[in-house]
Amino acid sequence: MASHETYYVPAQSKWPIIASVGLLLTVFGGGSMINGMSSGTGSAAGKWIFFAGALTIAYMMFGWFSSVVKESDQGLYSQQMDRSFRMGMGWFIFSEVMFFAAFFGALFYARTFAGPWLGGDGDKGVANMLWPDFQFAWPLMVNPDATTFPGPRETISPWQLPLFNTIILISSSVTVTFAHHALRADKRGATKAWLGLTVLLGVIFLVLQALEYQHAYHDLGLTLNSGIYGSTFFMLTGFHGAHVTMGTLILAIMLIRITRGHFTPDKHFGFEAASWYWHFVDVVWVGLFVFVYIL
Amino acid sequence: MSAVIDHHHADHAHGPAKGMMRWVLTTNHKDIGTMYLWFSFAMFLLGGSMAMVIRAELFQPGLQLVQPEFFNQMTTTHGLIMVFGAVMPAFVGLANWMIPLMVGAPDMALPRMNNFSFWLLPMAFGLLVSTLFMEGGGPNFGWTFYAPLSTTYAPPSVTFFIFAIHLAGISSIMGAINIIATILNLRAPGMTLMKMPLFVWTWLITAFLLIAVMPVLAGVVTMMLMDIHFGTSFFNAAGGGDPVMFQHIFWFFGHPEVYIMILPAFGAVSQIIPTFSRKPLFGYTSMVYATAAIAFLSFIVWAHHMFTVGIPITGELFFMYATMLIAVPTGVKVFNWVSTMFRGALTFETPMLFAIAFVILFTIGGFSGLMLAIATADFQYHDTYFVVAHFHYVLVPGAIFGIFASAYYWLPKWTGHMYDETLGKTHFWMSFIGMNLAFFPMHFVGLAGMPRRIPDYNIMFANFNMVSSIGAFMFGATQLLFLFIVIKCIKGGPKAAANPWEGAEGLEWTVPSPAPYHTFTTPPEVK
């Protein structure tokens, strides 16, 4: 007993079942909304189920995370427990990497194999018999069936807004690291300042991304409907944007917690996990900038 | 391996709560393991009854019982339920019960998330099964849901199918994270990685596979959702996409997935064969490396499911040779199991019978896999009943016999009673005969060209199909006997000792039977 602290096993908890029901409501409501949208016969019920689910999830997250914070404050978490949390977060981020890998894989496959074959390369083409005049190029401006999928008139230049966004996100990775160093040195004022700046940079990134989408839709004719270029472009940047939104929210919550006096110079895994997530989102962006915008 | 347990510290901080809410709110790995196992068995019976509908329709040529549309829904949901609802949760249930006991941990690393992983499953499968009652019917595009069948031509309920897959995927990822954290972080002092029981090792590698590929599945169904409802063209050549791309991404998930369903069975069998051979496992280290090698290879063989789709010759050759390489580590494993039994003091209790049948019949499934791996030959076999025979030989006497073997092996630990050996052996022999009757003739009709997923067939296949159906009914009915055996064992039976098996080794046999609600609150010392 002396050499091992007891591993904390929480008593019964209502949060997992609330989370499961919340997720079911969300996807069932969301699915009904989407189906209603596509068939044009949507009823209001789907919307309400979706909102009920989303609210349930928000309530669950607040409650579940609060109890974790309380347990941590009570000193129930040992070093060993801390390692479990670290492994959990690390492997979760790995799963996110693989999620993005699926979309990057789709992009690479469409560009390297499917596109050229559709244009008549190699001896595997039967698809090019359907559209004998189709020429493949990347970015793909003219789709095989240009009436169903009107191609984009123009694509987004990487050296304007996207470059600026790259600088913003990379700076935010640096500022969150400064915040971490300040927290470790117990300089709470500096921690708050650097973390606040990080959140601000995240928000600026999101606003600029929204402007870029508006530009794409209204001025460039680059939409979800504009063929494989638009599909991969919006899927990758869209999911990245959703992750930046999540990351910004998480960091904002960390900022609130720091303001309320949570964390100590050597125990602050909540903060660290948030910053790991933020760095991950940043790395994904660098991949996007290179493979979606530049190349 | 010996263990010293400080029983004074096996205190009961909180015992099981009373009533139904015990199961809903629990954080206990044994409760959650039990729920996983029961859920999986319920899904096994549900997916099995769908198989009975399929075999009843195929009993004779011509259309008898169901319409082709409904037949399609049966083949699809049978596959989905068996893969995601029966086999995977059964192994997660075994992991929940046994891994903490095997590594000397007080519970799973993240107990509340563990409960979350479980409770997402009834939600996911409730949603999936509900699609069968929706307008236009449930999923009818095969369990592999190839685009454009699952996009352009799918019933409206496909949206809910997609979300059901998302929920099941989230559950799997959380379960896998929990298992990895438990194995890497909660081992008792002295339990080095290379002292871990093989079941733990195979699960560690399986969990890695799950975290690597379940998100890819989530990605591909999300692309489907976007194609169906939001105008994208990932899988539509008219917009510059490619339906074949769906197959690439799907099988990048799908091939590791088949190892997810078999590696834990390898581990379980590697526990059981040494016990009833009364010899240590032959070649422990090579078993670990072989498992890792199989896991690595599983990532680079996916296109062997797509030989006929039109991929370049270099691709055909690469995926053919890579696939054949899998035979090497798998051969190492089979060799080791046989060598473990060689000159052992063998007895043939029910778990051992299932384990030996596993080794023999899984090997048959492996060999038919090698035949399918030959790209040129696959042009003949593709989409025939030969493929159905192949994967049912690796899944039924592979994964499912592995689960049965584990259940009989550990039932005394779970319930504190011995199961009825005579009934257990009856269950084994009926399953063994039924399963071979059902699936062996499929090799012949497949080689002769009978296509899969079609409710009607040429009259020349009639006799073999009738045999298959009789075998399937026999196998299906026998599983009710298994239900009876398990209930009987829970209700009573001869008391089981802490170690009911003469030759069993490992920490799980050092705690009393039934295992107390909390075990290893203080880690045991492993020498």
Task: Kindly list the characteristics that best describe this protein.
heterodimer; A: 295 residues; mainly alpha; Four Helix Bundle (Hemerythrin (Met), subunit A); 2 domains; 73% helix; 0% strand; globular; B: 527 residues; Cytochrome C Oxidase, Chain A; two-stranded antiparallel ribbon; 16 helices; 2 strands; disordered N terminus
Task: Explain what the structure shows.
Chain A is mainly alpha-helical and 295 residues long. Chain A folds into two domains: 1-77; 78-294, Four Helix Bundle (Hemerythrin (Met), subunit A). In chain A, 73% of the residues lie in helices and 0% in strands. Chain A is globular, with a radius of gyration of 23 Å. With 527 residues, chain B is mostly helical. In chain B, strands 1-2 form a two-stranded antiparallel ribbon. Chain B starts with a strand and ends with a strand. The model of chain B is unreliable at 1-12 (pLDDT under 50). Chain B: This is Cytochrome c oxidase subunit 1. Chain B: The chain crosses the membrane at residues 35-56, 76-97, 118-138, 158-186, 198-225, 245-269, 281-303, 309-332, 353-375, 387-411, 432-450, 470-490.
